[in-house]
Task: structure prediction
Amino acid sequence: MKSVEKIFDRYPNVKEKAKNPNNPQTILTTQEAVFYQLVQFFNQPDTFQFSLNMIYEHLRDEDLLFAIECVILFFQKDTKYVKEVSQTYYDTNLIREKIVGQKGFSRMVEESIEGIKFKPSMVHVYWHRETGRIPNADLIIDGTPYWMEKTVESFIEKEKDYRESKMLKRRGRE
Result:
């Protein structure tokens, strides 16, 4: 099953637990436990139930989006429930766009601009205060903002220009 393999690739502990569920050596984090439950449902949907409330309560940022992606993949590729649809909005738009949360936003900025410290908490504060310092979120799930990578890349370019301009002004005053 494509959906299960996708989870196993990202969470090796979940794969280990699925292979040997009674092994007390395999300890799962809360997030991994959610994905373990999801794998059980994917493998035996008539036997195991999965509550979307688990995703809502225990997952955030990239983990939350990854879980949604796995659920969609399960219904599209691993079941026969989606037959008459050749491509969904998800296939044509969202899957091509990498979406990042506050942690991914800050990581992209820190990796792209040398010497900058741009923590997820800063992204959170700037976004919630609506300062205009960072772009509007492309997607909001339960009040949590998410951005497409191209939106963050555009922000990075503007931030580089802003910092260069600021540095030139400082040099002009010296």
